[in-house]
Amino acid sequence: MKRVALYGGSFDPPHIGHKAVVEALKELDFIDKVIIMPTFLNPFKDSSAAPSALRLKWLQKIFSEDEDVEVSALEVSQNKKVPTIESVEQLLKEYDKIYLVIGADNLKTLHKWHRYDELKELVTFIVAHRDNIKVPQEFLQLDVAVDISSTKLRENIDISKLPKCCADEIAHYYNTRKTMQKRIENITNILDKHKAEAIEVFDLREKNYFVDYAIIASSLGQKHTLALLDHLKKELKPEESFNNVDESGDWVVIDLGDILIHIMTPEYRVKYDMESFLSELGRAE
């Protein structure tokens, strides 16, 4: 009988708390193998901080020498949100029994999971303790000494809480992303301050596109389009490098290397419908 523990999640970023959960699972004599399965995107969220391919790569590196652990690309490879029950159904084709590992913080929303009534009949839950949350007796419980919040870690990267094998790489990524978010906020604030309308930000990092982010804003007319360009030039330089600018009264495109800014008159925005094209690639949270 082949019995596995399925440990899914965003792992955004992966940290030593995740490693502690895996080590605790390996100590359970009724589990033969631990399968770590990063999501492409959490079903309850619209975006992730790190792209799924990068989170998968980090996990593969972290657990590369552990024979009792498999890092699965099942959900990441589908490039879409995948309900847990679909992954469970796929694994049941190969394994006889699945223990589904969740953090105690997930208990309050567990009933909202896709096809939850079916899911609970297919798996046995193992709940890892977190934040002193009381776990009902009907669940198997996992005592873990390390309690780390990925959300708080993203906001303030502490390299001591990251797996040593790729701690520097992970820290660099999130610190760089924080800088990117500040840049985007600065750009949108300038546009808003000078009366641009319908400002939208698109996250294109996991898409087949030549920049990481695109920003679209509407002007009030041709003169306003060029005025917004002038404001951006004055207020973003010298921090930002304007690699290329294509300008007309109806449509200005500013290439900052990893960010593309489109400023369009309302008529041109409707005519060319750039947001529909970019929406198919990805909209930022």
Q: In summary, what is this structure?
A:
It is built from nine helices and eleven strands. It has 285 residues and is of the alpha/beta class. Strands 3-2-1-4-5-6 form a six-stranded parallel beta sheet, with helices on both faces. A five-stranded mixed beta sheet has the order 7-8-11-10-9, sandwiched between helices.
Features:
285 residues, alpha/beta, Beta Polymerase, domain 2, 2 domains, 6-stranded parallel sheet, 5-stranded mixed sheet, 20% strand
Would you kindly provide a written description of the structure presented here, covering whatever features stand out?
The radius of gyration is 23 Å and the shape is elongated. The mean pLDDT is 94. Strands 3-2-1-4-5-6 form a 6-stranded parallel beta sheet, with helices on both faces. It has a 5-stranded mixed beta sheet with strand order 7-8-11-10-9, sandwiched between helices. It is built from 9 helices and 11 strands. A hairpin with a 3-residue loop joins strand 10 and strand 11. The chain has 2 domains: 160 residues, 3-Layer(aba) Sandwich (Rossmann fold), CATH 3.40.50.620; 100 residues, Beta Polymerase, domain 2 (2-Layer Sandwich). With 285 residues, the chain is α/β, with parallel strands linked by helices. The longest helix is centred in the middle third of the chain and has 27 residues.
